[in-house]
Prior knowledge:
alpha+beta; eight-stranded antiparallel sheet; three-stranded antiparallel sheet; 14% strand; disordered N terminus
Amino acid sequence: xxxxxxxxxxxxxxxxxxxxxxxxxxxxxxxxxxxxxxxxxxxxxxxxxxxxxxxxxxxxxxxxxxxxxxxxxxxxxxxxxxxxxxxxxxxxxxxxxxxxxxxxxxxxxxxxxxxxxxxxxxxxxxxxxxxxxxxxxxxxxxxxxxxxxxxxxxxxxxxxxxxxxxxxxxxxxxxxxxxxxxxxxxxxxxxxxxxxxxxxxxxxxxxxxxxxxxxxxxxxxxxxxxxxxxxxxxxxxxxxxxxxxxxxxxxxxxxxxxxxxxxxxxxxxxxxxxxxxxxxxxxxxxxxxxxxxxxxxxxxxxxxxxxxxxxxxxxxxxxxxxxxxxxxxxxxxxxxxxxxxxxxxxxxxxxxxxxxxxxxxxxxxxxxxxxxxxxxxxxxxxxxxxxxxxxxxxxx
Length: 396
């Protein structure tokens, strides 16, 4: 489901009426994983950001647009435009959550890299080393040939269970079902691999479902708990929430459009409940976020101390060509774009019915941007808009 890739300190008050708040955090170059004292943000940049978001929202076709921006020195800005609910007209705010789709893979990938750093996980080990004891394992395509690296770079040959019509039909028919990973993988059992392990590339959430199972086998704990312990709590990312049930407090309504290709209705939330249980997404994404905190996470991941320098280098240097466009590669849970209007960019895209996300870190300027909208239909130019936001900070 996720990952259709290619697919206060400044004196302003937040709240429903204002719709935006300049905020400050410290996750810059010299930052550690502990939150630091806030610093005042520059009013001109906040005003420019708000003007840009306000101008782009009606042109985008999205009901609401929310943006987080972190500059190289660690100052954090946020702005919104539009609504969180088309029916009530309630404005979207900077604290509202949106389903972040495959950008959530970055958390699972970061956990994997930390375990590799600690020599608790072997990037080039066969997945069978960790999961081969399960009775179902050999029913996976390429089961005995897949390595951890293949999973993380989408070179395993495992196709997308999440786009299997039988799965999406079952998901719609059983909206309260709590899915076990092996139940999701079962939609691929005894099928033919798309290609031999390591011999091709195809983006697939299946890879990260299997990866999350490996991570839990290695740590002996829930992957969500490890992510919270290692990243969310130290960075005080209070607006990054695992999507473990149909009710997610603070989640803005998402709109999938009248002809959602997966068969979901336009309104993804009815009476406070998502029309499906998003719990299934797990390692394929699995988080609701505010763009402000998602940008802070991206900044810590790509520039701060979320990973060691060797770990970050491994994450990026492992990139392989992916079918995501010219001069675009995929590393260990990261999309690497070597040529963009703002220079080399690393990050990730995210799709969940009713929501789209872009997380982008500009390597030359140290600027990190997260853009989220509450629709997955009819929006064009989301990544380009993220580049426009990054250019604001670069011009300072």
